């Protein structure tokens, strides 16, 4: 009984906290389509749509492929266009592992990967996408529970590929910006950012899956939230130091994926 009551109080407090934070970081139901969305460009930012694991309790309140969508994607693309010479489209594309459209986008971003639930067929298709030269960036999942959910699906297609930490000297951290010294990028749930971690995800982890040649093909951002830093880059309440690193990290990953 105490467990049920405690869980109920936790849920109520979490919902109240979310409402308070949303007053400071208000989300709009309407994000206008960029006027040049149909422009033909050399790079398109693709976001992965996936099926969610059927979680319960506090875990059921989070974990959607649509988190931060579409504002984070479009503001990140503004930064890519401003800070690099990449001819990038200003609007995101949505892909999944059901159709073959994913093969048209060599760089794919997946948010809240600690809540995805890939059937065997989709995990194998993800492997084929990677084996054909694709690159996957994962973001915004935290702690041991979400890590276990993430790896359960990933291992269906990549059981033969170990997940390794990325060394500071790796080219992915230096291809455009030098990211030798990195900090944990928090989501807005951490406002006013007296702490930067969620659950038991105390330390940020930059990890990867590599191919036979040692090339990073899956870049795993665990215990951090680049997407919120992109989404709230225009808010005076979100610290610039986190946004700056998130933009630099995303740009490095895109350029690495296109050149290695």
UniProtKB/TrEMBL annotation:
Residues 45-258 form the DUF4159 domain. InterPro entries: DUF4159 (IPR025297). It comes from the Bacteria. This is DUF4159 domain-containing protein. It comes from Paludibaculum fermentans.
């Amino acid at each position: 009984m105490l467990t049920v009551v405690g869980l109920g109080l936790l849920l109520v407090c979490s919902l109240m906290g979310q409402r308070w934070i949303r007053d400071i970081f208000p989300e709009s139901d309407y994000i206008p389509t960029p006027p040049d969305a149909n422009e033909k460009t050399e790079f398109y930012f693709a976001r992965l749509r996936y099926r969610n694991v059927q979680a319960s309790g506090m875990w059921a309140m989070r974990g959607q492929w649509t988190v931060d969508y579409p504002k984070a994607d479009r503001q990140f693309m503004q930064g890519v266009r401003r800070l690099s010479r990449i001819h990038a489209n200003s609007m995101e594309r949505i892909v999944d592992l059901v159709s073959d459209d994913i093969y048209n986008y060599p760089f794919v971003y997946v948010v809240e990967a600690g809540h995805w639930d890939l059937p065997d067929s989709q995990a194998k298709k993800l492997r084929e996408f990677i084996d054909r030269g694709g690159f996957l960036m994962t973001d915004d999942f935290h702690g041991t529970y979400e890590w276990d959910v993430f790896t359960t699906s990933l291992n269906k297609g990549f059981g033969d590929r170990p997940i390794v930490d990325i060394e500071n000297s790796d080219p992915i951290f230096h291809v455009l910006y030098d990211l030798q010294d990195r900090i944990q990028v928090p989501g807005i749930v951490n406002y006013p950012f007296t702490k930067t971690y969620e659950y038991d995800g105390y330390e940020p982890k930059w990890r990867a899956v590599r191919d036979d040649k040692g090339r990073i093909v899956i870049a795993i951002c665990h215990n951090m939230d680049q997407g919120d830093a992109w989404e709230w880059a225009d808010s005076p309440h979100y610290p610039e130091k986190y946004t700056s690193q998130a933009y630099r990290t995303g740009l490095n990953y895109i350029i690495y994926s296109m050149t290695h």
